[in-house]
Specification:
The protein is mainly alpha-helical. The chain has eight helices and no strands. 71% of the residues lie in helices and 0% in strands. The protein folds into two domains: 3-116, Tetratricopeptide repeat domain (Serine Threonine Protein Phosphatase 5, Tetratricopeptide repeat, Alpha Horseshoe); 117-152. The chain has helices at residues 3-16, 19-29, 36-49, 53-66, 71-84, 87-100, 105-114, 130-146.
């Protein structure tokens, strides 16, 4: 199999969540080497299948240094960090990817799964202040009743 074809197939398998087959294709043809996006997808498959988080993270960081403008790499870094149990690092990786592409569906989807908080209704007051709590609950209830996510 040509390296480009194998690389594309392995990336597609990884995107679809078939990590075991993707890892086999990546390793069979060594088609991820010297290709930052492919390396980050290989790293994700490696972390899911073999739980080799340190190796996966170092490969992904290498990929991010080579192609710092590719949001898919930051998406994969974030997913690896989530698998490691490091929600804080995952959040930072996702935010970095959003700085590159504000509408990246994979990253926005992951952030929704994480349940990122909105800013408090009155930013000048701490999040735990009674006014922020009451107003926040009212806004949430109004949005639930209206069935929307409108910003107020």
């Amino acid at each position: 199999m040509q390296k480009e074809t194998a690389r594309e197939k392995a990336i597609l398998l990884t995107r679809k969540g078939n990590f075991r087959k993707a890892l086999a294709v990546f390793e069979e043809d060594a088609c991820f080497k010297d290709d930052p996006p492919a390396t980050s997808f290989y790293a994700l498959a490696l972390s899911v299948v073999r739980k080799e988080y340190d190796e996966a993270l170092s490969l992904s960081v290498w990929a991010a240094k080579k192609e710092f403008y590719n949001p898919d790499i930051y998406l994969n870094i974030g997913k690896i960090c989530l698998l490691m149990g490091r929600k804080d690092l995952a959040f930072r990786a996702f935010k970095k990817g959003l700085r590159i592409d504000k509408t990246h569906k994979g990253i926005t989807g992951q952030l929704k799964k994480l349940g990122c908080r909105r800013p408090p209704p009155i930013p000048a007051l701490p999040r735990g202040h009674i006014l922020n709590k009451i107003i926040g609950r009212l806004i949430h209830e109004l949005q639930r009743i209206r069935g929307t996510e409108a910003d107020i």
